[in-house]
Structures are given as structure tokens and as C-alpha cells.
Write a structure and sequence with these properties.
Blueprint: E1 3-7, E2 10-13, E3 18-25, E4 34-39, E5 46-52, E6 57-60, E7 68-73, E8 78-83, E9 92-98, E10 116-117, E11 121-126
Parallel strand pairs: 2-11
Antiparallel strand pairs: 1-3, 3-8, 4-5, 4-9, 5-6, 7-8, 9-10, 9-11
């Protein structure tokens, strides 16, 4: 059984940083894209970042480009989202997702590209 578990959320002041972690168990994530999404109250779920470790591809949403980075650790079967220069508009629940199919190089940027989801971790940025 595949499980996806996020951690690292919290309350931070604007301009601060947080690092979210996502651990996947029950399956290696090598070859399977991983992604981060977020949903703010009253808004649609939004793609934040995605990684295809096998191809070395990383996609970052324009809304966070230059502030957020994504990385992965094969040995730990984990991915990370480093969030710097946080803004109040980054406040949302952040979800980690794992694709259910291997992709040679693609990084899905829509929720339909991912089959396994974590419960999410709350990030709140105060002004």
C-alpha cells in the first residue's frame, strides 16, 4: 500500500522560510513523478512544483518561481519543497502527490497526473 506523508508546515512571518518534506512508502518513487500542490481557502487546488528524478526534470509554477525549489532524495524516498521569501498569499494547505505511472521525462502539472496523495500540511504566512 502506497502512503504519502507530508511534514514541515507551520506558521511563519512574511519573508521567512519553510521546508516541507514528503515521504513515500510502499513503493520507490524513482521513475514516478512527484508533485506539490496547494489549496487556499476559497480557491482551486494549484500546482506548485513537480519533479521527475529519473530525467532530472523539475517544474516550478510561475507564481512561486524564484522563491520555491523542489528536490528529492532517492535514498530516503522523499522529496522536499524549500519555500523562501514567503508571502501571505502562500498561505494554504500543501499536498504532496505521487504519480501512479512511470514517466520517462514528463512532470505532470495537473492533479490528474497523480494517483497518490497525502493528507496535506498547513502553511500559514503572517503579514
Amino acid at each position: 500500500q502506497v502512503q504519502v506523508v507530508e511534514s514541515g508546515g507551520g506558521l511563519v512571518q512574511a519573508g521567512g522560510s519553510l521546508r516541507l518534506s514528503c515521504a513515500i512508502s510502499g513503493r520507490t518513487f524513482s521513475g514516478y513523478p512527484m508533485g506539490w500542490f496547494r489549496r487556499a481557502p476559497g480557491k482551486e487546488r494549484e500546482f506548485v512544483a513537480g519533479i521527475n528524478r529519473s530525467a532530472g526534470n523539475i517544474v516550478i509554477a510561475d507564481s512561486v518561481k524564484g522563491r520555491f525549489t523542489m528536490s528529492g532524495d532517492d535514498a530516503k524516498n522523499a522529496v522536499y519543497l524549500q519555500m523562501n521569501s514567503l508571502k501571505p498569499e502562500d498561505t494554504a494547505r500543501y499536498y504532496c502527490a505521487a504519480a501512479s505511472s512511470i514517466a520517462l521525462s514528463a512532470v505532470p502539472t495537473t492533479a490528474s497526473g497523480y494517483g497518490y496523495w497525502g493528507q496535506g500540511t498547513q502553511v500559514t504566512v503572517s503579514s
